[in-house]
Design brief:
Layout lengths: L1 E2 L4 E3 L8 E3 L7 E2 L8 E9 L2 E2 L3 E2 L3 E11 L2 E4 L3
Antiparallel strand pairs: 1-4, 2-3, 5-8, 6-7, 8-9
């Protein structure tokens, strides 16, 4: 996985260790995947967010994202 922003650490109330986060604002995370044939697939993603002033949100795990592979590449189905 690669990210176009540098990781920084913040202190969050109630958490003993510094928490690694990316800077506020948009960022792009890239994780290569490979399809063996054209068709539909489901990718499961997870994420969380933390703020030095607002604390952390409840992490999201295994959120399904529908994707479609073709000879032209990868596309996401509209929600």
């Amino acid at each position: 996985m690669t990210v176009d922003k540098p990781v920084k650490t913040i202190k969050v109330a109630g958490v003993r260790s510094a928490v690694p986060v990316y800077p506020d604002g948009p960022g792009t995370v890239t994780l290569p995947i490979r399809a063996t044939a054209p068709g539909e697939a489901k990718v499961l993603i997870g994420y969380a967010s933390c703020s030095a002033t607002e604390g952390c949100t409840i992490p999201v795990a295994d959120r399904p994202v529908a994707v479609r592979t073709s000879e032209d590449g990868l596309s996401f189905d509209a929600p």
